[in-house]
Every structure is written in structure tokens, then in C-alpha cells.
Amino acid sequence: MIKNATQNFVPIKEIREGIVILNDGSMRALLSSTSLNLSLKGEDEQMGIITGFQTFLNSLDFNIEIFLQSKKLDIRSYLSLLKERQNEVEEDLLKIQIKEYIEFIQKFTEEQSIMTKNFYIVVPYDSLNIVSSEKRISEEDFIKNRNQLMQRTSIVMSGLTSLGLTVKGASTEEVINLFYKLFNPNELDTPKEK
């Protein structure tokens, strides 16, 4: 019962070929992007990047959404690897050094919030053919709408790449994992296969 109630608040009908299909039949492509640290650039280069980004945004005849996901870095697997290495080492001095390093890393990450930042761009395509929320989008409509969405995605990728960013489309698995983490922020693991 609760699961169905929660699903009523999520406007996603399905995720197919890395594309999010919303309840109304509209589609969203999700791109992930690297970032640029403007403070490391010279003043002229900064202005060039800002002007280029402004030109890129003004060239679009559709909306995009840019969002940033910040999350605390999970170092558990790294610490496990270090502990394994500590157990494998035979020299006592090296064991002590690894133990002290593990303690340093644990203390440091407890005192300092070490965050990872992921940048995403959402590219929309709203079909003129509205689909019923109960009906699955036909394969023919999906292909036609996907092609339109991919044209938009290509424009966005090209514009951002020209600014020096690395941009790639998200796969179905990446999209599912992202939404799972967005709707389950306190869980660190990815969704379990059923």
C-alpha cells in the first residue's frame, strides 16, 4: 500500500534506453557533465568561458535544466581495501603505518565533510501526442520522439563540449541509480535486482 502511494508522487512512467518517460508521455534525457574551475583560469579565459556559456544558452530554442548533486563521499570500500592490505603485509612497521593511515583517514573524514559533486543536464522533449498515464507509449511513437530528443541532446552536448566540458548521456542503469539515490538519500547502496 505505501509503495503504491509513494509511486503516485513520482511522475515517471518508465525508463527506456536511458530516456525518462513521464506519465504524460513527454521525455527527458539526462546528461552528465564534468565541471570547470573558473578560479584556476586567467581573467580573459574566464570571460571567454562565461560569454561562450551565455551564447550557448541563448542559442537554445528549448529549456534545459541543470542540477548539481552533492553527496558525502563514501570511503568504506577504500578503507576495506586498506584493511585487507594491512592483513596481507608481513612487515610490522608497514602494518603500523597502514593502521595509522586508516585512523588518519577515518578521523579526517569525520571532521571534514568530503563531498562529491555531480553535474547533470536534463533535456526535455514534450510530444504533441499526450499519452494516457495508464497506457504505455507505442514503439513507433517512442522512436519518433526519441529521435527528436536526441537531436536536442546532440545540440546541448556540442555546445557544452565547445566550452571544454566532457558530457555524456546517461544509460538506463545510471538513470535508475540516480533516481533511486534521489528518492532514498539515506541509503548508500544501489537498488537490489528483483
Summarize the structure in words:
The protein is of the alpha+beta class and 194 residues long. It has two domains: 2-71 and 116-183, no CATH class; 74-113. 47% of the residues lie in helices and 20% in strands. The protein is built from six helices and six strands. Strands 1, 2, 3, 4, 5 and 6 form a six-stranded antiparallel β-sheet that branches. A hairpin with a 4-residue loop joins β2 and β3. It is extended.
Helix content: 40-55%
For the record, the count of structural domains works out to 2
Question: Which consecutive residue ranges, at least 5 long each, have pLDDT under 50?
Answer: 190-194
Form type:
extended
Q: What count of helical segments does DSSP give?
A: 6
Helix-strand topology string = HEEEHEHHEHEH
Let me know the number of strands: 6
Radius of gyration (Å): 22 Å
Percent of residues in beta strands? 15-25%
Mean pLDDT comes to 85
- Which structural class fits the helix and strand makeup? alpha+beta
How many angstroms separate the termini? 18 Å
How many strands, which pairing sense, and closed or not: the largest β-sheet?
6 strands, antiparallel
